[in-house]
Amino acid sequence: MEPKPVYSQETNLVQLGVGLDERTGAISVPIHLSATYRHPGVGESTGYDYTRSGNPTRQVLEEGLAKLEGGNRALAFSSGMAALTTFFLHFSQGDHLVVSEDLYGGTYRVLDQIFANFGLSVTYVDTTDTVAVAKAITDQTKALLVETPGNPLLGIADLAALGQLCRKRNLIFAVDNTFLSPILQRPFDFGADVVIYSATKYLGGHNDLCAGILVAREVDLGERLYFLQNSTGAILPPLDCWLLLRSLKTLTLRIERHGKNAMLVARWLEQHPKVTDIYYPGLEKHPGHELSCRQASGFGGMLSFRVKSDEVARTVLKRLRLISFAESLGGVESLMTLPAVQTHGDIPEAERKRLGICESLLRLSVGTESVEDIIADLEQALE
Ligand SMILES: Cc1ncc(COP(=O)(O)O)c(C=O)c1O
User: Fold this and answer.
1) Does a cis peptide bond (omega within 30 degrees of 0) precede residue 149?
2) Domain-wise residue ranges, the chain
3) What is the C-alpha to C-alpha distance for residues 195 and 216, in angstroms, rounded to an integer?
4) Predicted confidence (pLDDT) per residue in 224-276, tens digit
5) CATH of 9-248, one of 3.50.50.60, 3.90.1150.10, 3.40.640.10, 2.40.110.10
6) Is the CB of residue 70 less than 8 Å from the CB of residue 186?
7) Using CB atoms within 10 A of its CB, is residue 93 exposed (0-12), middle (13-18) or buried (19+)?
8) Which of 212, 215, 272, 357 would be a feasible disulfide site paired with 83, CB 3.0-4.6 Å?
């Protein structure tokens, strides 16, 4: 038998699911809505019993994502928060986690207001500082969760150094890779054990889908996370699995365009008199620029910037015409967010202020529209 050709990641993404339905030869994966499946006999199964436990459309998506990420097992959830929650369910009362302080507010909320009640404790640290991370580890620490680039300040954590630290201290190393996607950053190459996505963002890419993904590098952790998912039930429904499969086919193209546009927008904002600070790892002056060049193959489509006052920020949001003032990121449509009030509103005010997440900070998810139009909208809004 001839060996199977090995294709590039881009080709595998475009070809996701093609020809898997041998009966019809369908190019687009069929959507299997059946909630349950006939058994041929007692103790026999087609491989599918009940859709919470396994679904053919979800399986194509999960296997495609595991391959894309280079992991052993991927699981698709009904949202990024469902994926994160399932990951946290792995831990027990008395366990301690070290987590990036520059992270999505919803992750902070679920840890602080829900898992704290079950005896899971957390220390938030600046994960761009590996020494600070090492200092925060105690005998009870079981895992490190890092978001890099950070959210919303785009700080860059050293994945290789943190991977080594986790190995030395026997910790699970989890990376929320939502901002860069597997196209630009591959946490398993740096020793991560779990990669987490809000697939609502770049993986979905069209602001029309809420989904989350966990990918485990090793069989055992993958099995354990599957057990937790099947037991608690936050699966991604078949229609949404299909939508996400369709989106993944254009992920490489979209990520390329997001990155090109973001770089041009960042350079434009950098010289604008009303912009006092700009946070984009693609700019040479960004403190994480060199590290970012070493561990990622691009800088992504997310940037944040500070304007002269809260008032200017509010005026900008009011005046936007093309860019939507809306929560979320990673879609083809450009979105601007006020993190202090929206995505990070659940972080206590004093903590937000300490981190620099105040109401003059705007976060921009640069879309794939013509970059001239995006810049023109910013120009008139900042006028
Ligand atoms: C980095 C990051 N992780 C996780 C989440 C949560 O994902 P979801 O909104 O899909 O539940 C978000 C949402 O904004 C996010 O930005």
Assistant:
1) yes
2) 9-248, 251-382
3) 7
4) 999 999 999 999 999 999 999 999 999 999 999 999 999 999 999 999 999 99
5) 3.40.640.10
6) yes
7) exposed
8) 212
Among the four given CATH numbers 3.40.462.10, 3.90.1150.10, 3.20.20.70, 3.40.50.2000, the one describing domain 251-382: 3.90.1150.10
Q: What is the mean pLDDT of residues 167-177?
A: 98
In this prediction the pTM is 0.97
Residue whose CB lies within 8 A of the most ligand 1 atoms, among 81, 175, 185, 208, for a mutation test? 81
Q: Which of 48, 73, 64 is nearest to 229 (CA)?
A: 73
- Phi/psi of residue 134, nearest 5 degrees: -60, -40
Type of residue at 57: T
- For residue 182, say if its preceding peptide bond is cis, omega within 30 degrees of 0: no
Query: Is 249 known to be catalytic?
Result: no
Distances from the Cα of 332 to the Cα of 267, 341, 381, angstroms: 20, 23, 20
Catalytic residue among 58, 73, 186, 201: 201
pLDDT at 347: 86
